[in-house]
Queue: 2 jobs
Job 1
Amino acid sequence: MQRLVVLPTSRTGWALSIAFVAVVVAGIWPVIGLFNRAVLFLGLPLLVVWSYVLIFACFAVMLIANRVIEWQEGEDD
Amino acid sequence: MTSPWPLLITLTYVAIAMVIGLRARGGRRMNSLEEWGVAGRSMGPVTLYLLIAAGSVSAYTFMGAPGWAYAKGVAVFYVAVYLAYLALVAWYFGPKVWQFGEQFGHVTQASAIADRYQSPALGALAALVMSIGSIAYAVLQTVGSAYILFVMSGGTIPVWLGVPLVLACIAVYLFVSGQRAIGRTNAFQGVLMLIVAWAVGLWALHSATGGLSFAPLFERLLAEHGEFLTLPRASRLGVMAGIVAGFLVTVAFTTLWPHPLGVHAGFWGLMLNLPVFVAVSLVTAPTSPEVVERFFRIAAPRGLTRLGSGGKTVAADTAAHGG
């Protein structure tokens, strides 16, 4: 029986996939446990700072992925 | 009631939303499902952004989350993080699903699923599950809005009356303008929420500390309630129990035993849902290759990697099968 799954077909694709997974992993246990401490960093709770890092990391990964896709589409044309 | 202003401001907001919603139709004929249901697939990026923002930042975010922050502390930041993760999922799936809809004529998620798996019954089941799943969210939003009316009217408009009033307003502009009304009113609401959230946050901070720096607030919180700066502990037994139980578990843990061990009921359900989906798919017949390839030509235009083929791409096979 044939089983198909969409996997990246280039190194860039794999790198982006790993970046997406890394961002998600960074927001769940056990990684989140490293920041689950009652300390302040720049006046903010460490978990709050880490939440901001995750939000901007999501933004950055999507931005980079968009640029890569545009670049690849430009190459195909 | 001490002052009529809160109610007047709230009713003005409702009136503006009604006008925006009713005018959103803009002279278009709403006699096709595509025009009414998905605004003729013509929404621009700004409207779409504000629509999603206002849809995600709900009554829960404005009313439930501050309460949660008050009761549990920084754990409430899961709301901001899961919305960012939601954007990741939407970034990947959104454009593809939009293209499926445009090319194959899907208007609802159920019609896409029915077409993808060539099963009207599965489409109907998906529609039923999504309808039931949406009820809790719709009730949450409506009760939240009715509660706002109750508070703003100083108790004059009870929640039981506020619910049909809110529903009636939404029903009227939704009937007249369809998804365009939802897009425009959500855009209005999104802008308002961004402004109000920042204004109220800064005002509260200034009231509590006399300045606009967050540091003194959190320094005091650390000194007086340090436990508010960390997450509540999850138990291994709780996670094990979640794997055993999908939908029924979600319903049971929502209604009978709400969110045991402080973990959300939906998470318990997901832990069962995914393995069952994979296991059942592996032992039942797949949809015909032609349908799979029709979808995957959009989902994976550069070809597929077949599991067990050592990373070999199958674009050529796909082209040979699907033409």
Job 2
Amino acid sequence: MGKFWLVFVSLFFGTLLQCSIFPMIPVIQTIPNILLGLSVVFGLMYGKRTGMFSGVAAGILLDIFSGTIIGYNAFVLCLIGYVSGSFNDVFFPENYRLPLVALSASDLLYGFFTYFFFFFTQGDYKIVYYFFRIMLPELVFTVIVMVFVYLLLLHLDEKIQHRRNREGNRRIV
Amino acid sequence: MKNNGREKKSNRRILLAILFLCVIALVFTASNSSASSPLYQAAEVVFSPMQNGINKIGSFFLGINNQMRSKQELLQENKDLQDQVDQLQEENNVLVLQTSELSDLQQLYGLSDQYSNYKTTGAYVIAKNSGNWFDTFTINKGSKDGIETGMNVLAGSGLAGIVTEVSPHTATVRSIIDNSSDVSAMLLSSGDNFFVTGSLASMNEDQSILYSDLAVSSGDASGDTSGDVKEGDAVVTSYISDRYLPGLLIGYVKTVEKDYTNLTYSGTITPAVDFQHLRTVLVILDKKQQEGD
């Protein structure tokens, strides 16, 4: 049950951070894609199923706040959560390289998807421009913010595991 | 091992089911925007109290920031503003005269409704779009406050966008600088109609949006284009737009380029609204009369 609440609460605060708090800070030009980062991290930590469900939830939240069509972000983030969930077998908390690579790759993937569906199909072919001005800053910023979020989530997850172990022991005794 | 394999299979099935549902939702909401409103309402219940709070905290910090400006700056600003007030007062006197003359003439022509004051309501911006690719924002008023989709949104003196989604207490606005935004515009000086489109790229480059299809005046065969568009010309929404009320200021022409056909101009416009620091907006409660209404 702890896992569910962890996902739920982090998605809630992730949405607030991404849609309300970061846009309010005047100096910041690029907004980190925290909800995408969360679905990647949950996929890595808990496996395919949690990855894709948190991806869908995060995606629907993104869709609602971008206010155009529902389903696009849910689709992409569900896929991303599922794929990062398949790396759950080789994931262990001390390995920082895997989450970093997974985050960067999925943010790039997300960027290319968005470019393709909303810009390329409209006859806008300036992909190099979008890569350097939109995708790359977003990637860097997302990874920087997610490092902190990731450490926090690991810590919380450890606590949940710890408590569950203790309860389990008590039951056995 | 066997159990593991079964779980793998069921995972894949769930994934496919979700993706399929997403595609259905996509198609459904793309063709019919009101279909998604229950979702918006649910999100509003969960998020808007927090967002309103964050907005208040943000305003509080902005207030502190303002208080810390130096006295020298304020004195200088005060002096500048006083000059501006004098100048505006003078202009205002002239304008009041002209307005009364105009209303007389309009009455004569039976045009009095055209320019009548629109009913408006103020609102706070409580959330921005969810990423870097789109330019939409959420305001803290919704259908309970009389907001409907298709209403025009102003900020300061200029056009900011149009309401695309409404829930009871919040509404989503697509701004005119969004890449998919398209406004039918008119050059105030000549009355020529053309198109203004939002652009992510040019907004990033130099805070401007694009225009196109502005006709080169054909009246003069000698190539005299002095009557044509110039840098600094005001651009407003046109009468023939089916979504925007006429005469709302969009911005000022920044660059002018003749297209290779030599028949039309295109270039960039600096929006009248400062989209970087959008905090309060004004929603016009009157909607453009639609065909069939």
